[in-house]
Amino acid sequence: AALTVRFLTRRFIGEYGDMEFIYSHTLTVDGREILFHIWDVPSSQADDGSSEEKRIQWADSFVLVYSICDRASFNILPLKIQFIKAAKEGQSQEKVPIVIVGNKRDLHHQRVVSSEEGRLLALSLDCGFYEVSAAE
């Protein structure tokens, strides 16, 4: 989760509009260096079917971030996850790693999506779940 938060921070503290970025980061896990490439795509750009398909084929795992203060960002998750699973798991029998992340936990007074809703959605779609605050 710490790695996720580090990259989420760049995305959500200073909004940069509809640009997309690829971040690279090396992490040592069990004595092995692992190079991560993270393709950060704003939701507004993820709607083009052919571009989205290209991104899905490029990635090995997925972190879908919604705002706990924005119901619409939460409501699109099931469709996005079904699209990802159909594209990735249709080609192989391996389960694709997907994590749902509720962001802006520090703005609890503006919360419209409960933690329980996030957990239940993740459970029903067989995904991981975290709530974070990139501002913290």
From TrEMBL:
<dbReference type="InterPro" id="IPR001806">
    <property type="entry name" value="Small_GTPase"/>
</dbReference>
<dbReference type="Pfam" id="PF00071">
    <property type="entry name" value="Ras"/>
</dbReference>
<keyword id="KW-0342">GTP-binding</keyword>
<keyword id="KW-0378">Hydrolase</keyword>
<dbReference type="GO" id="GO:0003925">
    <property type="term" value="F:G protein activity"/>
</dbReference>
<protein>
    <recommendedName>
        <fullName>small monomeric GTPase</fullName>
        <ecNumber>3.6.5.2</ecNumber>
    </recommendedName>
</protein>
<comment type="similarity">
    <text>Belongs to the small GTPase superfamily. Ras family.</text>
</comment>
<dbReference type="InterPro" id="IPR051065">
    <property type="entry name" value="Ras-related_GTPase"/>
</dbReference>
<keyword id="KW-0547">Nucleotide-binding</keyword>
<dbReference type="InterPro" id="IPR027417">
    <property type="entry name" value="P-loop_NTPase"/>
</dbReference>
<dbReference type="GO" id="GO:0005525">
    <property type="term" value="F:GTP binding"/>
</dbReference>
